[in-house]
Amino acid sequence: MAQAYLTDGIAALDIKKQSGRPCALTPKQKQQLKDYVCKHAVKDEGGRLIGEDIREYIRETFDVQYKLNNVYRLLHELNLSWITSRSKHPKQSIDAQERFKKFHS
């Protein structure tokens, strides 16, 4: 990089697009994946969708193998945050929680 600057000046320091392996999913498939994640982020039976669930969905739906760290990179590319709140038990009772809070206040 320093040699490029000395040879070609400031223009040599422009950030160039990185070449590399292209994404295995098409833009349409990425949108389908994003829709799936948004729809299934909270499981009906309780708990949250995890990276391994998404990895399996990609494999079964698109017949593409991803390593787990690349699943998270792909989610970031799709503007999906992987920070979630604590999952809720499917049998939780809001009423019981409120009664508990009042009893212990």
Could you describe the 3D structure shown?
With 105 residues, the chain is mainly alpha-helical. It has a domain at 23-89. It is 50% helix and 0% strand. The protein has 5 helices and no strands. It has helices at 2-8, 27-40, 51-62, 68-77, 94-103. The termini are far apart. 5% of the residues are buried. The model has no long low-confidence stretch (mean pLDDT 82).
Mean pLDDT: 82
Flag low-confidence runs: none
How would you describe the shape? Answer: elongated
Helical proportion?
40-55%
Query: Structural class, from secondary structure content?
Result: mainly alpha
Instruction: Report strand %.
Output: under 5%
Short account of what is shown:
This protein is mainly α and 105 residues long. It has helices spanning 2-8, 27-40, 51-62, 68-77, 94-103.
Main traits of this protein?
50% helix; 0% strand; elongated; 105 residues; mainly alpha
List the helices and strands and how they pair.
Blueprint: H1 2-8, H2 27-40, H3 51-62, H4 68-77, H5 94-103
